[in-house]
Amino acid sequence: MPSAARPALDPELAELIADLPLVERITPEILTQLRQLPSPPVEEVLSGRSVRRREVTVAAADGTPVPLSVFIPAAAGPGAACIYWMHGGGMILGDRFAQLDIPLEWMDRLDAVVVTVDYRLAPEAGGCTPVEDCYQGLLWIAGHAGELGVDPDRIVVAGTSAGGGLAAGVTLMARDRGGPSIAAQVLICPMLDHRNHSVSSHQYGGEPGIWTRESNEFAWDAVLGGLTGDEVPSYVSPARAADLSELPTTYIDAGSAEVFRDEDVEYASRIWAAGGQAELHLWAGGFHGFDALFPAAALAGAARRTRTRWLVRTLGG
What we know:
The protein contains twelve helices and eight strands. The chain is α/β, with parallel strands linked by helices. The protein has an eight-stranded mixed β-sheet, with helices on both faces. It is globular, with a radius of gyration of 18 Å.
């Protein structure tokens, strides 16, 4: 049951969300319907930008082709930063063009190269498959940095929701496997903990929403396929990682009115406890994914501008 008390939504966002078709729990039937909804045409997102687009595939650990899209701005010079983007969707939905407007804003400000990955989705490909697919993309970027005009010491991994969790998992993988080098990670309302046991998880369950405790449970069940306890890899559920030391500087944000709030705060706290650097923002009244769904809302604009300023400071752009 949801908690009787929960943070109120930002008034502007509350009006906007009232018009959305919300569900309490994703079901297999709803998942099928949602997968039929396309992402906005990438041509629309790129409209008005002078960008060279390149499509490549990399081989996953099992040999499966994993598509990558590369966007190189005309103003990019040698030694450009690279934003490696992982899309959201609970690891059960979406494609490499989902939420692409977010990293393209950073491309505009930093003249950075953007690479986005079509990792495989659960339940068809669960366990470590999504995060391993993303890691192979990182290896490709590092191995082709010169060809892309990218400084290999200025690669940022970033993602929203499930993509934020995958970015965290890729960062742990890169640390443990000795590379590639990651300059920073940007984790936007990241999906980090399969246990689904926090206060905020319970607060945002029991009634329809953008992403509820029940939908989160459905997604994690699809990803884990019956794995429990110590069987769950920390690369898949990064909150399980015993050691968060030696990670790159990290940006984490979330809304105060969303299911992932507390696991995101805890992750930042554990990075600090391990001696690392993290910047944490909790946006009062923000629901899950508010900045991606309603970028013109005042709170969304503030969140997006704050992230961009952090990246500029971090990368020296």
